[in-house]
């Protein structure tokens, strides 16, 4: 396979123009990033969803900038030739510009991301403009915004009526005007996601937003059903069930340890006779 080179935001916009969909996958560590790159994904998102998926939190809110830097840096080591976007965690871009840029700087310098993602609409456009002005690409995120889950009343589908649809279109246009290079649309009705995708010249990347976005993103652990117990999601398609394979493999290991069938003869290393003589005074192999 020819050497892969990371996309850039100019190429992504051209892909939208040419009608070539973008594939994006989350990854949170070195081995998952390495596998994602080998599989040919266009973009890797180090999402603050790692709070739910990897760290065991109920929401993304406890995720810190330190968490994001650590995991982004791990992903970068595994995916040297893929465009990597790191989430700005909860409340790291709603204060002063200086505070926002400190967090961005850490994700770019320490985490080695290519871009950052920020959730929200009109209320974050000034922050988006400031980050873009500092030379950092920003991916927007509207629709269901998990960092605002307590404000929007839970994990609800967005864009179900005319007023909400117009709000989302206005937010997408505002984010484009602020300099965002693309927008994630999460849990947005298909019709509204299609309208947004036509209304802006930057790529839209859907998750639970239907068939007419300019790209799609799913969570690594959802694509592979890598969880226990696994919670079904309507907008997710499972492509492999590694969770069951892992569980079965570990169960087999435990069983073989208990019945002493592991380790077997092929798993051991044998010493020569001189070592045995020094250990057991010539009593022979296997002496007690």
TrEMBL record:
Keywords: Cytoplasm, Magnesium, Metal-binding, Pantothenate biosynthesis, Transferase. The keyword Magnesium applies. The keyword Transcription regulation does not apply. GO terms for molecular function: 3-methyl-2-oxobutanoate hydroxymethyltransferase activity; magnesium ion binding; methyltransferase activity. Pfam families: Pantoate_transf. GO terms for cellular component: cytoplasm. Pathway: Cofactor biosynthesis; (R)-pantothenate biosynthesis; (R)-pantoate from 3-methyl-2-oxobutanoate: step 1/2. Binds 1 Mg(2+) ion per subunit. Gene3D superfamilies: Phosphoenolpyruvate-binding domains. It catalyses: (6R)-5,10-methylene-5,6,7,8-tetrahydrofolate + 3-methyl-2-oxobutanoate + H2O = 2-dehydropantoate + (6S)-5,6,7,8-tetrahydrofolate. Its EC number is 2.1.2.11. Its cofactor is Mg(2+). Belongs to the PanB family. PANTHER family: 3-METHYL-2-OXOBUTANOATE HYDROXYMETHYLTRANSFERASE. Homodecamer; pentamer of dimers. Catalyzes the reversible reaction in which hydroxymethyl group from 5,10-methylenetetrahydrofolate is transferred onto alpha-ketoisovalerate to form ketopantoate. This is 3-methyl-2-oxobutanoate hydroxymethyltransferase. It comes from Paenibacillus borealis. The lineage of its organism: Bacteria, Bacillati, Bacillota, Bacilli, Bacillales. The gene is panB.
């Amino acid at each position: 396979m020819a050497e892969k080179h990371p996309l850039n935001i100019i190429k992504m916009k051209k892909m939208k123009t040419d009608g070539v969909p973008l594939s994006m996958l989350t990854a949170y560590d070195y081995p998952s990033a390495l596998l994602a790159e080998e599989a040919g994904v266009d973009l890797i998102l180090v999402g603050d969803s790692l709070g739910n998926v990897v760290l065991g939190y109920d929401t993304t809110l406890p995720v810190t900038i330190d968490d994001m830097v650590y995991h982004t840096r791990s992903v970068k080591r595994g995916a040297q030739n893929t465009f990597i976007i790191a989430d700005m965690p909860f409340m790291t871009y709603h204060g002063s510009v200086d505070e926002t840029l400190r967090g961005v700087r850490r994700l770019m310098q320490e985490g080695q991301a290519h871009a950052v993602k920020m959730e929200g609409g009109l209320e974050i456009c000034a922050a988006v403009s400031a980050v873009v002005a500092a030379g950092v690409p920003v991916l927007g995120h509207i629709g269901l915004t998990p960092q605002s889950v307590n404000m929007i009343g839970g994990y609800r589908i967005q864009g179900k009526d005319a007023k909400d649809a117009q709000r989302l279109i206005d937010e997408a246009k505002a984010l484009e005007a602020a300099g965002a290079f693309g927008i994630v649309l999460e849990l947005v009705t298909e019709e509204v996601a299609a309208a947004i995708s036509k209304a802006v010249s930057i790529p839209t990347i859907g998750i639970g937003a239907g068939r007419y976005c300019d790209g799609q993103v799913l969570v690594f652990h959802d694509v592979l059903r890598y969880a226990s117990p696994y919670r079904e999601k309507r907008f997710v398609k499972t492509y492999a069930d590694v969770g069951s394979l892992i569980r079965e493999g570990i169960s087999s290991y435990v069983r073989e340890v208990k019945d002493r069938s592991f380790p077997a003869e092929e798993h051991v290393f044998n010493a020569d006779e001189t070592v045995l003589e020094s250990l057991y005074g010539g009593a022979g192999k296997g002496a007690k």
